[in-house]
Amino acid sequence: MTQQPLVIVGGGMAGALLALLLRHHGAGRVVLVENHPLSLPESPPLTPSFDARSTALSAGTLSVLGDLGLADAIREHAAAIDTVHVSRQSRLGITRISAHEEGVDQLGAVVENRWLGFVLLGALFADKSIQVRAPETLSSICRVEGGYQVSLAGGEVLETPLLVAADGARSKTREWLGISAREHD
Question: Whole-model pTM above 0.85?
Answer without folding.
Answer: yes
